[in-house]
Design a protein that fits this description.
Blueprint: H1 2-9, E1 13-16, E2 23-26, E3 29-32, H2 40-50, H3 53-62, E4 64-71, E5 75-84, E6 87-95, H4 110-115, E7 120-125, H5 132-146, E8 150-155, E9 168-173, H6 181-188, E10 195-198, H7 204-215, E11 219-224, H8 229-238, H9 245-255, E12 256-266, E13 273-281, H10 284-291, H11 299-305, H12 307-310, H13 315-324, H14 330-336, H15 340-347
Parallel strand pairs: 7-11, 7-12, 8-9, 8-10, 10-11
Antiparallel strand pairs: 1-2, 1-6, 2-3, 4-5, 5-6, 12-13
Helix pairs in contact: 6-7, 7-9, 9-10, 14-15
């Protein structure tokens, strides 16, 4: 079976469309499997076998649908079924049966401290396929092992399945367990949650409920499709009209706990990828910067100032750590760096003597 072959290869995604052999994404690169090109009837048959009735009706009406499936003996997959050139196509995303630990994912240890905060909003961000869901699942797993809490997740669809360890975890899937993100979120505060996980903040209503829940003593985890902490804060602010900017800046400055942004970088020492991770902790200085409408956001400098005391780190510092250990190449480090020219100077040892923020990232 093609799914089994993709899983055995260690592929993260599988693409199926008419007229081409199945394509697997391995370590970020797409490559064809040694199989014959797919026919329309092949994909139609797959759709009839795996698509739930509700999503089948949705596909018939909108020509696309999202759902998750479990294949015994092979694994779990997040599926997007869509139409292109009048024929059915699929993208399968492989999902681990159990969430990996923060340590096993090579994420910075400060994420354990962030996960254990009693309240606040934590946003995990990055482009599609950068490991947002995997990182969130590892943080929920850490909480599940470390404290006793009631966790409610609202996802579309459910990806990682969490079993109760020390926490009571209820996972709700949009379309199956609730009508929509909005309807689930409007009632979630009546379900006695300590921690709320929202699969993705997609609209203003979801954002407002997330901010309200974080501001009233709950821990809220969610994701945004943004590339770094600065863009994340700007994206949140952009949900609101200009006359509400002062209010939302104050609300965000008090509710925000941390922003964790991810980029997956190919390894040089062996096949695979490692996460370059930017971490912003909402310190008093960050709060002041978010609130002050007369000043532009100065997040990179605030991260640099908070590296030693608070465990913050920039993408470039994270990349320097991987490069200095020989895990990623210089070329890839430059390619994924936020400021490539500054990174190159740091590698050459050209830095201000008073700048100690890079010391812990160089070998």
């Amino acid at each position: 079976m093609v799914l089994q072959q993709a899983v055995q290869m260690g592929a993260s995604d599988l693409h199926l469309k008419v007229g081409r052999a199945p394509m697997a994404r391995l370590n970020g690169e797409l490559s064809p499997l040694e199989l014959p090109p797919l026919r329309p009837e092949d994909l139609k048959s797959i759709g009839e076998q795996i698509c739930p009735p509700k999503q089948k009706r949705e596909f018939d009406a909108e020509k696309e649908a999202d759902f998750a499936i479990g294949v015994p003996g092979i694994g779990r997959f997040r599926v997007n079924m869509y139409q292109q050139r009048g024929t059915i196509a699929f993208v399968f995303r492989a999902i681990a049966f159990q969430a990996a630990s923060i340590k096993d994912l090579n994420l910075p240890p400060v994420l354990e401290e962030i996960a254990m905060k009693p309240r606040g909003l934590v946003l995990v961000t990055g482009i599609t396929g950068s490991g947002k869901s995997t990182a969130l699942a590892s943080m929920i797993q850490y909480v599940n092992e470390s404290r006793h809490a009631n966790i409610i997740t609202i996802e579309d669809p459910i990806e990682f399945l969490h079993r109760d360890i020390n926490c009571n975890i209820n996972q709700r899937e949009v379309g199956l367990d609730t009508g929509s993100f909005a309807s689930a979120l409007r009632r979630v505060l009546r379900q006695d949650p300590d921690i709320i996980l929202i699969g993705e903040i997609r609209d203003l209503e979801t954002l407002e409920i997330a901010l309200k829940a974080a501001d009233t003593g709950h821990m809220v985890f969610s994701t945004l499709h943004t590339t770094d902490a600065t863009q994340t804060i700007n994206r949140v602010l952009s949900f609101y009209p200009p006359h509400q900017q002062a209010d939302v800046r104050f609300s965000l400055s008090t509710a925000l706990n941390a922003v964790v942004s991810l980029r997956l970088v190919p390894r040089a020492d062996r096949p695979g990828r490692v996460p370059a991770c930017e971490v912003l902790i909402n310190t008093a200085a960050v709060q002041d910067n978010i609130r002050d409408m007369t000043k532009s956001l100065n997040i990179p400098d605030l991260i640099k100032e908070g590296t030693v005391q608070y465990g913050m780190q920039s993408f470039d510092q994270s990349l320097m750590s991987w490069y200095s250990k020989g895990i990623i190449s210089y070329e890839n480090a430059l390619f994924y760096a936020t400021n490539a020219s500054e990174f190159a100077l740091k590698v050459q040892g050209i830095a201000g003597t008073s700048d100690t923020s890079w010391d812990s990232f160089t070998q």
